[in-house]
Amino acid sequence: MRREREVVPVPARFGKVASILAVSLALGLLPATPAAAGVHQGTWRGTTGEQRNIAFRVNGSEQVTWLRFKIEVESVLCKAVITWEASGSYPIRPDGTFVVKGMDGLSSFRVQGVFLGRARAEGIAKTTVFDPCFASGRTQWKATKVL
């Protein structure tokens, strides 16, 4: 598990903190039908709702084996861009959904996704970090198969 950060100082402020974008998959979207092994195999790339990169790889056994994404986090004391990267074996369920989770100390992330056919996927990414400060972020993402 690897995490990088870009810190952007935020001046002290009081009052209501701007809410972080919170979206979910649109109602009525059906996940991809169960697929044969290897149908999603390849490299996937896309962007988040914050126009940041997301990429992941799927092997021939229908497992996400690598994921990297950037996400903005914000709190009263700071604003930062966090880069998460994870490797492992995260199975794609028969309904076309998957979850990749990871931790680095107390900081953590969760990426949920659904394949909408053989070449499109989308989902939600969220994180909570304790360094450089306690902050959280959540965004939607979309990706397409490139290889």
What are its keywords?
mainly beta; nine-stranded antiparallel sheet; elongated; 147 residues; 9 strands; Lipocalin
- Element pattern in H and E: EEEEEEEEE
Q: Low-confidence runs (pLDDT<50, min 5 residues)?
A: 7-34
- How many DSSP helices? 0
CATH class: Mainly Beta
Assign the CATH architecture.
Answer: Beta Barrel
Could you tell me the CATH topology label: Lipocalin
Read across the widest sheet, the strand sequence of neighbours is 1-5-4-3-2-9-8-7-6
Layout of helices and strands:
Elements: E1 2-9, E2 42-48, E3 53-58, E4 63-74, E5 78-91, E6 97-104, E7 107-115, E8 120-129, E9 135-145
Characterise the protein shown here.
The chain has about 150 residues and is mainly β. The protein has one domain: Beta Barrel (Lipocalin). Helices cover about 0% and strands about 60% of the residues. The protein contains no helices and 9 strands. Strands 1-5-4-3-2-9-8-7-6 form a 9-stranded antiparallel beta sheet, with no helix packed on it. A hairpin with a 3-residue loop joins strand 4 and strand 5. The protein is elongated. The chain starts with a strand and ends with a strand.
